[in-house]
Specification:
The complex is a heterotrimer. Chain A folds into 2 domains: 66 residues, Arc Repressor Mutant, subunit A; 38 residues. Chain A contains 5 helices and 3 strands. In chain A, strand 2 and strand 3 form a beta hairpin. By secondary structure, chain B is α/β, with parallel strands linked by helices. In chain B, helix 4 packs parallel to helix 5. By secondary structure, chain C is mostly helical. Chain C has one domain. Helices cover 82% and strands 0% of the residues of chain C. Chain C is built from 7 helices and no strands. The chains are: A mainly alpha, B alpha/beta, C mainly alpha. Chains in contact: A-B, B-C. At the B-C interface, helix 2 of B face helix 1 and helix 2 of C.
Chain lengths: 119, 231, 260
């Protein structure tokens, strides 16, 4: 995985993991590698990965079972809400980007219709 | 004690220049620190004072709560940027030296690393290219089992593939008990493993902080932040 | 400490080997070319040359560790300054004793050659050999083995003392005077000063002991080796005391003040 050093790395790892969950690459209840193993896989400091797991646990995306490891949530609602959050973020980025090149929100909707991007 | 290394009001003067001025720093156990700054900013001097090769002019240093002495050296593994190895020794003789002198030295481990990075143990140090010497130095330093590792430009003169191997070894060696202090001009290649950074400028502490926080705060990579600071 | 000594010898074993082989070859060459006088010349030349080589090598050994980057190898290890300086002195003593031993062997072998060359019958047992050596030395050099031994041992102690004055100056240069302008010059001044102090004190001590010298008009023929020891003892003791002081001083500087 390539990292953009201009923003916090742990956020990028979290983002990637969320994508993998939504895409089904990581299934509900899947066991995550230990923060040590995962950090070596990514070539990162294990503190960074530990932080990722901690933050994701705070967001209820993963949970830890003492002595057994860290697991992806089994709640399909949670996974849906992650999907929703990511979609929202993508839309926001889209809207911001389009506004910067002079589109109003109305223009954007028409543009999408016209260019058949949704077909 | 989580402060494995404490530096209090450290000053180092030479008769014609001030190498370090009133440095106050605290290093926590289990973190990887990036020590940064241009040539002459004091990074090497700082490391040499910690390992006892240089004597400070004033100020104190505590390693795991103990003032510097020959005993604290046993807990520090320093990799100087210079070629300091005995010229006419073969690599395997240098390995033997480390094995003899350091009770914590992991011989099998270093021999494996040397194999992985293509350093022939039969070669004399004087016959090694600077790239190979660089790799050898890093391998030796990382094969100690101590609480503090100080690497002065570990990637200097080392080829791209070996750099990855070295960064990989650093990450693998790192755990919650071990502290790494890495000084490197190649900020972009080292920054993703750093917990914290320390910027020195003309012997003074310019900036220090958590790497991720600094990225968040400034919206810049540590490398770009470096360029800003030393413009 | 033994490890430090071991590596100091490992670093120079090739040099020592070359020295031994060259000496043997030189001895053979001189004997082949000049016979008995060649043998004697060698026995006279060897210690003179070796003293210089020895002192040079021992001083270089320390100077390299303090002045070159390779010194980092030693100074990054967890050894106290006292251990380091004592190790260096022990190495110096071992190396010196080895050279003395080598010289003794050369004396014995050359003496055997000289006696046979001059026609003496030689049954090879210890008593005969020592007899031959004594005859040879008394005849050709004016002393017996005992005298030679005493002189060499005294020279040895004095050499160690001299070496330590160099060590002390080098240590001061890399500690107290490391950040001082003209530090090198000042250290050299100290070196000269230490040696002057040694000769000055030796001179004073000798004049105190001078009554004993009245017996000596002709070395070798008049005094025994034991009497020689009594004469030289003050010098030896003085050198030993000074050496110990310098070891402690240098050890302290290496431990607390070193600035490589």
């Amino acid at each position: 995985m390539e990292f953009n050093n201009n923003m916090p790395i742990y956020l990028q790892v979290m983002h990637r993991l969320k994508q993998d969950i939504i895409a089904g690459k990581l299934k509900p209840g899947d066991k995550m590698p230990s923060s040590r193993e995962y950090s070596q896989e990514l070539g990162l400091n294990f503190n960074t990965v530990a932080r990722v797991y901690k933050e994701m646990e705070m967001e209820d995306i993963v949970y830890t079972k003492r002595g057994l490891g860290t697991f992806i949530t089994e709640s399909s609602e949670k996974i849906e809400s992650i999907r929703f959050e990511m979609a929202k973020e993508l839309i926001e980025n889209f809207v911001n980007g389009m506004e910067q090149i002079g589109f109003t929100k109305q223009d954007m909707l028409s543009f999408i219709k016209e260019t058949n991007l949704m077909n | 004690m989580t402060q494995i290394l404490e530096i209090n009001n450290l000053t180092k003067k030479y008769y014609n220049k001030v190498a370090l001025e009133d440095i106050n720093l605290s290093f926590e156990r289990g973190k990887i620190y990036g020590l940064m700054g241009p040539n002459g900013s004091g990074k090497t001097t700082l490391m040499k004072v910690i390992i006892g090769l240089h004597k400070q002019t004033s100020g104190s240093i505590l390693i795991d709560g103990n003032p510097l002495s020959y005993k604290t050296k046993a807990n520090v593994s320093y990799m100087p940027t210079e070629n300091f190895l005995y010229d006419n020794f073969k690599v395997k003789d240098v390995v033997k030296f480390y094995e003899d002198m350091y009770s914590d030295f992991k011989t099998e481990y270093v021999l494996q690393i040397l194999k992985d990075i293509n350093v022939d143990t039969e070669f004399r140090v004087s016959k090694l290219s600077s790239g190979l010497v660089g790799k050898l130095k890093v391998a030796l330093a990382l094969s100690r089992d101590v609480d503090i590792y100080m690497l002065d430009e570990p990637l200097n003169g080392v080829d791209v593939l070996a750099r990855d191997v070295i960064m990989d070894i650093i990450v693998k060696s790192h755990n919650e008990n071990k502290t790494f202090i890495i000084s490197s001009h190649l900020v972009s290649e080292t920054e993703k493993v750093l917990d914290s950074v320390v910027f020195l400028k003309e012997g003074r502490l310019e900036l220090s902080g958590d790497a991720e926080e600094l990225r968040q705060q400034h919206g810049l990579s540590i490398e770009n932040l470096y360029k800003e600071v030393y413009k | 400490m033994f490890k430090i000594i071991k590596y100091d010898f490992l670093k120079k074993y090739k040099l020592l080997l070359i020295t031994i082989i060259s000496s043997v070859l030189l001895n053979l060459f001189l004997v082949v070319k000049l016979g008995v006088s060649g043998s004697i010349s060698f026995l006279a030349f060897f210690p003179m040359a070796m003293i210089f080589l020895y002192i040079g090598d021992i001083i270089k050994m320390y100077s390299d560790d303090l002045n070159k980057k390779s010194g980092y190898m030693l100074f990054m290890t967890s050894n106290s300054g006292y251990k380091i300086i004592v190790s260096k002195v022990v190495t110096a003593i071992l190396e010196g004793l080895s050279i003395l031993l080598l010289y003794m062997i050369f004396i014995i072998i050359n003496s055997i050659y000289i006696s046979t060359a001059q026609g003496f019958e030689l049954n090879v047992n210890i008593a005969e050999v020592i007899n031959a050596v004594n005859l040879v030395l008394s005849g050709n050099l004016g002393f017996n083995l005992g005298h030679v031994f005493v002189f060499l041992l005294t020279a040895f102690v004095v050499a160690i003392n001299f070496i330590l004055t160099a060590y002390t100056a080098i240590t001061i240069r890399k500690s107290l005077f490391s950040e001082v302008k003209l530090g090198g010059f000042l250290s050299f001044v100290i070196f000269v000063g230490l040696n002057w102090a040694t000769s000055f004190t030796t001179g004073k001590l000798t004049s105190v002991v001078s009554p004993y010298y009245d017996n000596v008009t002709n070395f070798g023929n008049i005094i025994s080796a034991t009497e020689l020891v009594m004469i030289l003892l003050p010098v030896v003791i003085l050198s030993a005391i000074e050496s110990v002081i310098m070891i402690i001083g240098s050890g302290y500087l290496l431990e607390k003040k070193i600035n490589l």
